């Protein structure tokens, strides 16, 4: 069974007896910097479980809580020195770094939420700043203050050094300077529900009810409070939160003993590491090691990101290599072909049982593809698209689609049969692969006539003979006969007639065309180039 459905099934078995009317699956993030692909794994894992619950016939809701009321903790590498003065203030109250959004938090949050729409995720978003200011946390704050010593005892049980005797489970946003990391609660009056606090940043002191945004619970108390407020029954978490003694373990005790709420099931996901050169390093907004989700849509289809993040169990580690995007797309295309093959098989032989592995493939495709086409769409390999996009480029840097269709025709595609869906997806893939090649892949730089001549002089006599024989045969071909298949056969035919190892023929071609020892599939590549360009370089 596909992991998301299996997880949903386990949750249902444990929770159905509690009489739950609606299963709430939660996800969240602190928008302190660019929200990256690693962060997206949590949201997409939550979405997978949410879909599993719906498939099982349960009423379910997927929510996203943006922790935009957390403070700016330091001057991150992407910030100017001017932002030093905002350290300690809630992210929602700090100006946008580029002046394009209402706040610092919105600057990083909005692109991510827009990306979730592109990914086809149905989600209800809550901003912590709005929730606190609207009073949604007021009762939770009172319970935390009334149970201060109980919470301290719980947390101390997981600490090497106990919290100070005068510690309170609340951070106060100073009413004068707006900062919250250097305020200290001096006392709490349980009768009138007031606290007295002093701010060491500006010296302001006041006695006030810490409600409607004045007070914010610290993370280890905020999280279990949130479970009760939103009725959370399932929530994925990073391995740091799920580690022994982490915020989940303390949250479970606080949830049960303070808020009287059954905590959500423990579901840990592994980090995604970004490959930088030969090394794989954990993504981190604060360290500047990121690939933002908003940037993904510039280089690849959204369903491919979903496929990357949910094709394996959340506990499986992922190394994310931008250079490997074509391989990921190839894997998705293979899944898509298999899906339609299996659907056709079910249609023609409804009584024939499909094995578990194939059922999982059907389910995976359904989970990652928000708009499933009626039939198998035309698939043009991503790597080949990147080549077409660079060859069929017009003077205005736009892709010449007439030229692109001509290249596809020479490579065995019946362009006349392309549906509107096929054309739309193809155009998107061409544009995306062009961006990928420009920024992360291999740029296609075809040699000049002079460079080709220099490479020719380096070839062996046997290779030179192959080049001269091949181009003579090439020139004799009719235009309609210049196809990838015909040229592929001609490459081998000429090599065999001269008793030349075909790999030496390929090596000679790549040298003269690209000054490299390797390159795209040669038959397809030559069929994609202008006839005159091929003749010019080979001669």
From TrEMBL:
Top-level EC class as recorded in UniProt: ligase
InterPro entries: aa-tRNA-synth_I_codon-bd_sub2, aa-tRNA-synth_I_CS, aa_tRNA-synth_I_cd-bd_sf, Lys-tRNA-ligase, Lys-tRNA-ligase_SC_fold, Rossmann-like_a/b/a_fold
Keywords from the named record: Aminoacyl-tRNA synthetase, ATP-binding, Cytoplasm, Ligase, Nucleotide-binding, Protein biosynthesis
Record-linked Pfam families: tRNA-synt_1f
Catalysed conversion reaction: tRNA(Lys) + L-lysine + ATP = L-lysyl-tRNA(Lys) + AMP + diphosphate
Family matches, as Gene3D superfamilies: 1.10.10.350, 1.10.10.770, HUPs, Lysine tRNA ligase, stem contact fold domain
EC number, as in UniProt: 6.1.1.6
PROSITE patterns: AA_TRNA_LIGASE_I
Superkingdom of origin: Archaea
Short sequence motif 'HIGH' region: positions: 31-39
Gene Ontology molecular function: any one: lysine-tRNA ligase activity
HAMAP family per UniProt: Lys_tRNA_synth_class1
Similarity comment: family membership: Belongs to the class-I aminoacyl-tRNA synthetase family.
Protein name: Lysine--tRNA ligase
């Amino acid at each position: 069974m596909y992991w998301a459905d299996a997880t949903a099934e386990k949750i249902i078995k444990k929770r159905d007896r509690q009489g739950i009317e609606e299963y709430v699956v939660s996800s969240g993030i602190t928008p302190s910097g660019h929200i990256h692909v690693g962060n997206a794994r949590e949201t997409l894992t939550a979405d997978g479980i949410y879909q599993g619950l719906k498939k099982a016939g349960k009423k379910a809701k997927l929510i996203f809580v943006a922790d935009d009321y957390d403070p700016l903790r330091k001057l991150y590498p992407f910030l100017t020195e001017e932002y030093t003065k905002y350290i300690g203030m809630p992210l929602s109250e700090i100006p946008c770094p580029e002046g394009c959004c209402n706040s610092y938090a919105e600057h990083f949050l909005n692109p991510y939420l827009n990306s979730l729409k592109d990914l086809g995720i149905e989600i209800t978003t809550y901003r912590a700043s709005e929730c606190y200011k609207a009073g949604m946390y007021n009762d939770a704050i009172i319970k935390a203050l009334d149970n201060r010593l109980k919470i301290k005892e719980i947390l101390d049980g997981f600490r090497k050094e106990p919290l100070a005797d005068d510690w309170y489970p609340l951070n106060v946003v100073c009413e004068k300077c707006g900062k919250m990391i250097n305020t200290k609660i001096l006392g709490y009056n349980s009768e009138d529900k007031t606290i007295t606090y002093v701010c060491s940043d500006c010296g302001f002191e006041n006695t006030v009810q810490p409600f409607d945004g004045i007070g914010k619970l610290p993370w280890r108390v905020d999280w279990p409070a949130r479970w009760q407020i939103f009725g959370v029954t399932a929530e994925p978490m990073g391995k740091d939160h799920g580690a022994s003694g982490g915020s989940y373990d303390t949250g479970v005790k606080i949830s049960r003993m303070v808020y009287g709420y059954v905590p959500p099931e423990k579901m840990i996901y592994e980090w995604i590491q970004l490959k930088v050169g030969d090394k794989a390093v954990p993504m981190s907004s604060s360290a500047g090691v990121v690939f933002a989700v908003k940037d993904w849509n510039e280089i690849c289809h959204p369903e491919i990101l979903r496929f990357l993040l949910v094709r394996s169990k959340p506990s499986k580690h992922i190394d994310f290599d931008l250079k490997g995007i074509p391989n990921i797309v190839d894997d998705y295309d293979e899944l898509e072909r298999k899906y339609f093959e299996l659907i056709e098989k079910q249609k023609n032989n409804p009584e024939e049982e499909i094995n578990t592995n194939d059922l999982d493939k059907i389910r995976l495709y359904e989970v990652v593809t928000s708009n499933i086409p009626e039939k198998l769409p035309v698939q043009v390999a991503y790597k080949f698209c990147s080549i077409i996009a660079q060859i069929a480029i017009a003077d205005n840097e736009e892709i010449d689609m007439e030229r692109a269709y001509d290249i596809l025709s020479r490579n065995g595609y019946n362009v006349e049969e392309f549906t509107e869906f096929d054309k739309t997806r193809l155009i998107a893939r061409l544009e995306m692969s062009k961006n990928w090649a420009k920024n992360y892949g291999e740029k296609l730089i075809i040699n000049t006539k002079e460079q080709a001549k220099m490479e020719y002089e380096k070839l062996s006599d046997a290779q030179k003979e192959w080049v001269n024989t091949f181009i003579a045969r090439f020139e004799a071909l009719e235009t309609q006969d210049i196809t990838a298949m015909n040229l592929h056969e001609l490459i081998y035919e000429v090599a065999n007639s001269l008793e030349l190892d075909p790999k030496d023929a390929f090596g000679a071609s790549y040298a003269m065309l690209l000054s490299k020892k390797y390159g795209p599939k040669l038959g397809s590549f030559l069929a994609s180039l202008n006839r005159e360009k091929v003749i010019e370089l080979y001669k």
